[in-house]
Amino acid sequence: MSVHGVDDQAEVGIIGGSGLYALDGLTDVRRVRVSTPYGEPSDEVVLGTLSGKRVAFLPRHGEGHRISPSHLPARANIHALKSLGVRQVLSISAVGSLREDYAPGDLVVPDQIVDRTSQARGNSFFDQDVVVHVPFATPYCDRLRPLLADAARANARVHTAGTYCCIEGPQFSTRAESELYRSWGLDIIGMTAVPEARLAREAELCYAGLALVTDYDCWHDGHDSVTAQAVAEVMHRNGEAAKATLTALLTTLPTDVACACQNALATSIITPLTKLPESTRDRYALLLGKYLPTG
Ligand SMILES: [Zn+2]
Q: Is 91 left (phi over 0), alpha (psi -120 to 50) or beta?
């Protein structure tokens, strides 16, 4: 883990996905390279001030969109943000819609996730010597979600809830899969909410997602006639709406908050922490520091 100075601190983390590769309007910008016990994050973290808040921006797929969903260093990304002092994370991603009334250009603040990933994506920080079972019934922060939805309303049509179906990819679904997910009542489909949301909970970070609806998934009759240009136009509009939403949200977002997310490990650590090997204590210093016995 690298050691950061005071200037390298941020209150809010923003993970940008397809359609949001950079944030305009940041001032006092510094780029920092962070190393973590879980490897390197997707890219340098861009630290800057937006609407009076110090933010840490990380492009999820790296500069030039070169890391596919299955290979994202999600553990390093979340760990890096936490190491910079971040306590609240806003995760932006492009999604397909599984229902008619969630139309391209709409924004969704999802409240649930169904995990359909199949590869080893590094689903937990706690992979040696310590067993942790965090509650995950509510995968997104219930305090942050309505604030995000309120800030989004001025910029697009907003859906204040939705179940995010996270598939492995990188291929899109088959029509049969898409119809299956629809029959399950799932609302939007993407490739990145898992394990990001799981890891944010383990890192005791408040985490909310802003999903930008790009297209109807392949179930929709009009799907085959959608042109790349039309999708590009929707993505551009979505990106602008996301930036305006973040700018508005940060203006009013409380930073000194007490939220259950930030104590998620308090009753979740099964293994007694009294006799951990030194190497394990080092690996988990940032995540378990406040729970480790001193001396
Ligand atoms: Zn929270």
A: beta
